[in-house]
Amino acid sequence: MKHLLVIAFLVLAVLGLAGAQASVSTLRAKDPRSMGIGGSFAATSWGYDGLYGNPAAAASSKPQFMIADLSAWAYLKPTQANIDKALALVGGNASPAEMAATANDLIVGNGFGGGFSTGLGYVGKGLALGMYAIGDAVAEGDSALGAKVTSSASINLVVGLGFPIALGDKATLRLGGDMRPYFRADSVDGGWLFADFLTAFAGGGSIESVVNGELVDGGFGLAMDLGAQLEMGSFSLGLAVRDLSPSFVTSQETVSQLLSNLSAGTIPDLSTGNAEVMLPAVYLGMAWKPKLIPGFLEPGLYLEFQDPVAIVMDKASIWNLVHAGLDLKLFSFLTLQAGFNKGWLSAGAGVNLYLIELNAAVFTEEYGLHPGDSPRSGLSFQVSIHL
Does the chain have fewer CB atoms within 10 Å around its N or its C terminus? Predict the structure, then answer.
């Protein structure tokens, strides 16, 4: 099995380089468990989070069965005034002019939108098996009438294996890899006009009818993810390389056509499609989680560097690499978080009631080349049921 993982890795890497014509980037969940600690979760993730984090989590001796997981986030600066404006905009309880002004306040300087992630799975004891879906959309522009909505969505099935290697009495190296069939869809032509959505908001029309008529590029692909984790007592190091994938062919169709084809199991016409490839993502991180008073006071410190190749190629600030955070678990069920995400602060909190876990976070991310170029703030909420 180890040899098969290596061979599959080489095949996918070669095919990806040979077939790439256009590229799409990794679609990441903005769940509060990770956003609260500055997004520093992938390299040292464990349990269900390993499905979209580090595949080496499959080698953990402590498995997790996620029965259901749902996260939702909204892109808006977390003030009561902005929350009220967002509710008024979506509710359509204002004149067209008032709604345009409200949308303008929310979009300019931050962007307005949101997303979700949901899934289930079993990870640990040498096995990773599950599925997850992620959707994300945001409106950006210098004004509400000129803003464009860019959206992406993916559905992923994950089958992975992992194994531990004992390095003496105090260290364990965990290795893992997975194969991940996926479907990916992205908005086309630079995005959809937000003015179309604004018209629907103001006229009391159906937002669904607007979305259904928009064009997307969608297609099926196959990716591989590889990871390693070195654990030495309360200290751990992690490395994950995700989205090693050959090029995949997409077809352009409306959202309604896409949903109809998926529900009917119909394969779209790819004869005139575009070849695209996923851009691989690299995560390197560390975690230190001493149990000062087991079951009562358990802090955690996290540091992660993400996408170093992209940072070098884009000539971005070194701060765009850095994701750091800390959490504090109290009484075995309450967790407080703080983080540093590409130069911006984040915070979160969670309650774990054995089977049910609730989390919330506020965050800001940097989408420009330097901190302060293009920040985007948001709120994230999560509920999960796990064993």
Answer: N
Domain range summary for the chain, segments of one domain joined by +? 2-386
Rounded distance, CA 286 to CA 324, Å? 10
Give the closest residue to 6 by CA, choosing from 244, 309, 246: 244
Where do we find the tokens 């290596």?
6
Angstrom distance (rounded) from CA 324 to CA 39? 7
pTM across the whole model = 0.89
- Interatomic CA distance for residues 33 and 47, integer angstroms: 13
Give the residue among 269, 279, 174, 307 at the shortest CA–CA distance from 223. 279
3-state secondary structure of 377: strand
Cα distances from 330 to residues 291, 300, 333, 348, in angstroms, run 11, 11, 6, 14
pLDDT band at residue 20 under the 50/70/90 scheme: very low
Residues 2-386, CATH architecture: Beta Barrel (2.40)
